[in-house]
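2 proteins. here.
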Amino acid sequence: MISYFSELRYKEVIDVSSGFRLGYVCDAEFDDAEGRLISLITPGRAKLFGLMGREDDYVIPWACIARIGSDIILVDTKEPLQRRKRKRRSFL
């Protein structure tokens, strides 16, 4: 199966060990020196229907990815996932 990088944004990420839905891929970290993907990033859950912003993003290391299917990505995390603070955007 051949997939494009842009198709990752439409795949839902689920943790196999807990069954927790982490969301959809919003970004990825790429090491240009070695030419490989380091991790996938999914946004945190919305607070109060998105009016109060979002929680920190989930950073999923590439080593934790168990399977990439046609519409889903299964991850197997042995320990809690690393979280990354979401950068605030100013509109002014």
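next one coming up
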Amino acid sequence: MVCATVKKGQECTFMSKKGCTFNGGSCYQIVDQCKGCNHVTEFSSGWYCTAYPDPSAKWRNGNCNFATHLKQETKNRNNKTNPLKASKRNFR
């Protein structure tokens, strides 16, 4: 349904005929770590995340998995491969 509380006009899975069913009855504003993310949008009542209704919960245990402004660090593996085994794999 379309949100009628905080993000007016936006589709929301927590809206029902009785109102917002999310914890507390509405979405929460973003936290400082969210600034710069593509999911942050300004509404008439403040800045809110369009991907998740409670951004502080996403940042509680580390980085938010929806954060578009953070780069994922890839670990470089320096595994040595046995050339004999590698040649056998290529043979199949």
